[in-house]
Amino acid sequence: MKEKKHWQLELSALSLKKNKKLKALIKLLRNEKPGKALEIGCDKGVISYYLRKIFPFSWMSCDPDIENINSTLELVKKDALQMHGERIPFENNAFDLVLCIDLIEHLEDDDALLKEIKRVLRDEGKLFISVPHVHPLLFVNYLAKILGITKEHYNHKRDGYSSRMLIEKLEKNGFRAGRKNTVIGFFTELIEFTLNFIYSKFFNKNPENSPSKGRINPGSEKEFKKQEKKLKILRMIYPLMYLFSLLDMLLFFLPGYILILQAEKEDKS
């Protein structure tokens, strides 16, 4: 019997940014010991799917959006639950590792979620958190504002976080910040932004029905199928986009557009 093609995986395969972010997360987690792991902000389940295939942890996933949970369950079959607001639906000290992926910028009360993460994380556990990076040298962010692609297009409550902002926020909520890294260079971000701009301006006919993480790409199987002809063109030019993205190596001295930071609980009493 032929295995079903999942639209989420097909769509993510065309995103240089998502693929590079996944590689960065895999690199961060590869030395972690197996244990109970929680992924917060599972979105459509693509990262959930690959993390489960690669790492022999006992995974759970959660997200505030029930549509995201349903999409994730299509891929991973089990162990994905909806959050209610910022409340994480697990008991205290339940996890050895928490991975919070591009979520806190979507929440009105990001402090509340960080307090919840501290609650469910064991004393010796680790938090890995990724957010959009705010920095004066991130030129695509200026381009987005000039062209009218604001944080509302991504359903963000704030544009992102600088390293200092995120560290201060973590410390305020009982964490000690550790290693930090930025990923996604200028050319990769420029490609992703261009595709998002084209989709949001010309192809998304019902922005009021957009998914929780924005209206910058198809958010459902129905919408994916509606754009299938255009996605065929994208598949054809993908090799050229990949080659263009390699120019990031020439700008190695610039910060990346995604900030990833590791943290541990400050108070382990």
Fold and architecture overview:
Helices cover 41% and strands 19% of the residues. It is of the alpha/beta class and 269 residues long. The protein has one domain: 3-Layer(aba) Sandwich (Rossmann fold). The longest helix has 18 residues. The radius of gyration is 18 Å and the shape is globular.
Give a quick precis of the structure.
By secondary structure, this protein is an alpha/beta fold.
List the defining traits of the structure above.
globular, 7 strands, 41% helix, Rossmann fold
Secondary structure layout:
Elements: H1 7-12, H2 16-29, E1 36-40, H3 46-54, E2 58-63, H4 66-76, E3 80-82, E4 95-101, H5 110-120, E5 121-132, H6 139-146, H7 163-172, E6 175-183, H8 186-203, H9 221-226, H10 228-245, E7 258-265
Parallel strand pairs: 1-2, 1-4, 2-3, 4-5
Antiparallel strand pairs: 5-7, 6-7
Helix pairs in contact: 8-10
Assign the structural class, choosing from mainly alpha, mainly beta, alpha/beta, alpha+beta, or little secondary structure: alpha/beta
What's the assembly state of these chains? single chain
Number of strands: 7
CATH superfamily (homologous) name: Vaccinia Virus protein VP39
In this structure, how is the largest beta sheet organized? 7 strands, mixed
Whole-number total of structural domains:
1
Low-confidence region ranges:
208-214
The third-level CATH topology is Rossmann fold
Radius of gyration: 18 Å
